[in-house]
Amino acid sequence: MKTNLNPTDTAQPRYRWLADILRETIDRGMLTDNQALPPERELAERYEVSRDTVRKALRFMEERGIIYSDHGRGTFVSPSIVRGTTRFIDSFSQDTGNRGGVPGQRILSIETVGASMAISTLLNVEAGAPLVRVRRVRTIDDAPVGLHDAHFVLPRGAKISRSQIERAGSLYKLLMSEFGFEPAEAVENLCAGAADAEDAQLLDIAAGDPLLVCERITLSDRRQPIEYCLMKYVSTYRYRTRIAKHSGGMS
């Protein structure tokens, strides 16, 4: 049975479209934990895409812990406990929804700024190069839980507005559709911190209260740095991740 969905109807690459469809199939319980996925040929015929597109989609999903491969046996759905703890780029809304909460945001500012020496080094641009900076308060069930201060490398002269972000519902979705922004992977550093006076006011906590601080550099599909984001979360926010054994073994 073929799908009536057309991958050309979306601006996403076809493999990302297919990965989203397969992920939705899993989330709806049509494929269960450790169940085998259909063979590549069957997926290609069902969704009217090439075998290469299927392979890229499966590789994309496996890198994110949604599925796993067993050599000689096939590809299977990862257990829900693994899928639920896998980090996705800009996954705040999805993680919050999966936990039964209502994600939200309050945009503090959107501006074009010159890259500082530190950020220019991280993003591999010249000091003073124009970056789009977006500062937001992230909320769960209308309660503030985090601060996101992001700097984006976008085409020169690119501008985005508060209304554009609100209409799109997702900042990444807007950047992908308007500027071809294509996040592929990220590097994160975590540490403990304490709220300063501004943090405390925005997060409705006391100055000096503990915070989880995360610095993230996001890379494009060509592995070029395209975003630096400083994230601060209140102590009640639960940050989940998945750790996998390296193929080289352990000592």
From TrEMBL:
One of its GO terms (biological process) is negative regulation of DNA-templated transcription. Gene3D superfamilies: Chorismate lyase-like, Winged helix-like DNA-binding domain superfamily/Winged helix DNA-binding domain. Residues 12-80 form the HTH gntR-type domain. InterPro entries: Bact_HTH_transcr_reg, Chorismate_lyase_/UTRA_dom_sf, Tscrpt_reg_HTH_GntR, UTRA, WH-like_DNA-bd_sf, WH_DNA-bd_sf. It comes from the Bacteria. PANTHER family: MANNOSYL-D-GLYCERATE TRANSPORT/METABOLISM SYSTEM REPRESSOR MNGR-RELATED, MANNOSYL-D-GLYCERATE TRANSPORT_METABOLISM SYSTEM REPRESSOR MNGR-RELATED. This is HTH-type transcriptional repressor YvoA. It comes from Herbaspirillum frisingense. The gene is yvoA_4.
